[in-house]
Amino acid sequence: MQPAPRRWRLSDAEALTGLHPVVGQVLAARGFDQDTAAAFLDMSGGYHDPFGLPAMEAAVVAIQTTMDERGTIAIYGDYDADGVTACAMLTRCLRAAGATVIPYIPNRMTEGYGLHAAALAELAARGARCVITVDCGTSSVEVARGRPADMRLVVTDHHLALAPGGSPPQLAPADALVNPKLPGSTYPFDGLAGAGVAYKLVEALESRGVVPGGSASASLGLAALGTIADMMPLRGENRVIVRDGLPHIADLPGLRALCEVAGVDPPPRGTDIAFAVGPRINAAGRMEDARLALELCLSDDPDESMRLAADLDTQNRLRQQAVAVALAQAEEQVAAIDDDAAAIVLGDPGWPMGIVGLVAGRLAERYARPTFIACLDPAEAKGSARSAGGVHIVKALDGAATSLLRYGGHAAAAGFSLEASRFDEFRELVTASVAEQNAGVERRRDFAIDCEISGIDVTPELCRALDQLEPSGQGNPAPLLAVCGARVLAASAFGAERQHIRVTLATGEGIVEATAFNKPALAERLADYLPRGRIVDACFGLELDSFQGFVRVRARLRDLRPAHETTLAGRPVAAVTAASAG
């Protein structure tokens, strides 16, 4: 199988008026009209009543009753950044209210995702009278039913797995189950992260005086980090949480130290969290134990915070190395798969379980095919799946359910486990299941170009105008801009593996210096754009970089192509520039 062909697409929507012309074009390209664009940019009144969430009243009562009885509360999290930040948030909040709190994060390698009976028994033995889950628990029916006697259980979650065949989901019998996705929920926004649901619980507790005033405000940094790291859509209430939370992330000593080791200047941007801070939080759970990340989020000591941040940075480097090795091995196997194969399904006992999801994501993006990657541990093979081409990945796994021990997730991503000896059977079943969904779907990697500009438009003023669209991320990506017919002044690959590239382009009356990090496939194609003087098209994102008082524009290169392809989606390109608007 060859990498999927690339296609650039540019909207022909007319730019909205009353805005910077590039901003108006970006919003129009994304389907906004004048009214919806104004509301999107305003973001006022974006928080909803926390008691609109299902069972929020019951959750507050259960927690308040436990605190009135001076009972110990356990916060049961998850090993990814969403679960860790939510666990830290409630631990900090309830401890500030005087409660005795036990934070608990299951180990990815030995326990796996979700609520576990043995863990609840251990927490009961440590005196926990109430367990609050974050980012998990909705479908833990039997574990919830069999929990220790007299243990209150409050589930806060944002997952909802449909039963095979589309029958109604089974829900854990908890004292309170707070989840915006529950059937019958009337909450106005169902896209909250696990950390977002935990934040709404803090809001509710504060409004009833259970926790100190200012608790919700103090929780916004962790809520923003969890929302971005879990790739939740930055629309609706999520966008407001992230907007208000980003300036407060560095308020916590642990996160301030992590920003420092990651080379991120506070206040961080959404892209800083997505590509630098969040991966370091996630690295602990992928490579060793997520409790290291939890300790960092709970730390108030600057020296301890720097030590923990350095440890997480080391874990992240190990994670990067493990992904690079596994990805290279997987690429060799993909080369033997036919181009018309419906899915990529690979397994290896040597691939660490903590990184198979990252490998699946990289392959799904590059080859535009749903991808299933498994660590073939003889005891129990565990894997991750990532979607492409509009395939609902859980429905694809439904078609292979007879070969699986368990599975769950959502349309874009899922996890699964099976006996290693049945992997070939699983490959056949899930490939056939995917084929039923994407028959005839063309393999393509689309680049949705928001606006074509000229090099003279690449200025700090344009970057500041585009800041109106922040925070950007999943569901609200950073604007993707293009220059067409640019002349290459210089181009080179750099880095230990020559996996990064730097290109200097002359276009119109301006110069664009663009850099792409960790783009080995793009680096491999660099020869296509040489020698110097070649005419090319380039697409990129823009951001401001400040160093020692000097401000410059950085272009993050996304793709490069010969200029003979001077049409986008089959039609001539029409530039919309600040200069042309006068």
Report on this model:
The protein has three domains: 6-30 and 450-572, OB fold (Dihydrolipoamide Acetyltransferase, E2P), CATH 2.40.50; 52-246, Alpha-Beta Complex (inorganic pyrophosphatase (n-terminal core)); 337-438, Diaminopimelate Epimerase, Chain A, domain 1 (Roll), CATH 3.10.310. The protein is 37% helix and 21% strand. It is built from 18 helices and 20 strands. It has helices at residues 21-29, 34-42, 56-68, 81-96, 117-125, 141-145, 194-207, 215-229, 236-245, 253-261, 270-287, 291-298, 302-334, 356-367, 393-398, 423-438, 460-466, 520-524, and strands at 6-10, 72-76, 101-104, 128-134, 152-156, 176-178, 344-348, 371-375, 381-386, 406-409, 413-418, 445-449, 451-452, 481-494, 500-507, 510-516, 535-547, 550-562, 567-568, 571-572. Strand 7, helix 14 (356-367) and strand 8 form a beta-alpha-beta unit. The longest helix is centred in the middle third of the chain and has 33 residues, at 302-334. It is globular.
- What name does CATH use for the topology of the largest domain? inorganic pyrophosphatase (n-terminal core)
* Broad structural category: alpha/beta
What is the overall number of helices?
A: 18
CATH architecture of the largest domain: Alpha-Beta Complex
**Rounded to an integer, what's the Rg over CA atoms?**
24 Å
- The number of E-state strands comes to 20
User: Which strand order does the major sheet show?
Assistant: 3-2-4-5-6
**What proportion of the residues form beta strands (DSSP E)?**
15-25%
Can you summarize the main beta sheet? 5 strands, parallel
Count of spatially separate domains: 3
| Helix percent band | 25-40%
Mean of residue pLDDT?
89
